[in-house]
Design a protein that fits this description.
Keywords: Cell membrane, Membrane, Transmembrane, Transmembrane helix. Helix 1 crosses helix 2 and helix 2 crosses helix 4. The protein starts with 25 loop residues before the first helix and ends with a strand. It has a two-stranded antiparallel ribbon. The chain has a domain of 83 residues. The longest helix has 29 residues. The protein is mainly alpha-helical.
Length: 156
C-alpha cells in the first residue's frame, strides 16, 4: 500500500455548470414565505402604522381601497419585487438557502420579477392557492408563477 492521500475539492471549487441543480421544494418554500410574511407584517407595524398615526390617517382596513390596506399592499409587493430583483431572494429564502433564477440562466429582469411576483402570484392566489401546489407535484418544483415567468427556485 502507498501513503497517497486522496483529497476531494470542496463543493465551491466545482464550476456552477458542473453542479446539478437542486430545486427548492414545497415545504422549504412554504416556511420561507411564512418568514417573509412575518418580515412584511413587522415592516407595516414598525413603519407604516406609526406614519398613519403621526399624520392622523385612519388605520381601518374595511375596504379594498382603504388607505391602510393600500399602504400594506404597497409594502408587501415592494418587499417581494425589490428583494427578488436585487438579491434573487427574499429574507425568508436567504434563511432557507433558496434563490430565484431565470430558467435560461440569464439575470432576472424587472419584467420577469414583476410578472412572477405580482401577476403570477396574484393569479395563483385567486385560484384558491392551487397555483402554489404545483410546486409539490411538478418535476422542477415550479409554481404557477414560476411557469408564467420562466423562473425556478434552487437551493444554494
Amino acid at each position: 500500500m502507498t501513503d497517497m492521500q486522496i483529497t476531494v475539492p470542496p463543493a465551491d471549487d466545482f464550476p456552477p455548470a458542473g453542479r446539478p441543480l437542486c430545486y427548492g421544494g414545497f415545504w422549504l418554500r412554504f416556511w420561507a414565505y411564512c418568514l417573509d410574511i412575518i418580515v412584511v407584517s413587522s415592516l407595516n407595524r414598525l413603519i407604516v402604522w406609526p406614519l398613519f398615526r403621526l399624520f392622523d390617517w385612519p388605520l381601518a382596513r374595511n375596504g379594498l381601497f382603504a388607505p391602510a390596506a393600500v399602504a400594506a399592499a404597497v409594502v408587501f409587493y415592494a418587499y417581494f419585487v425589490l428583494m427578488t430583483k436585487w438579491f434573487g431572494q427574499t429574507l425568508g429564502k436567504m434563511v432557507f438557502g433558496l434563490k430565484v433564477v431565470d430558467e435560461r440562466g440569464e439575470p432576472l429582469t424587472w419584467l420577469t420579477v414583476l410578472f412572477r411576483e405580482v401577476i403570477g402570484k396574484f393569479i395563483a392566489k385567486k385560484l384558491l392557492f392551487i397555483g402554489f401546489l404545483f410546486v409539490a407535484f411538478s418535476e422542477k418544483k415550479k409554481g404557477m408563477h414560476d411557469q408564467f415567468a420562466d423562473t425556478i427556485v434552487v437551493r444554494e
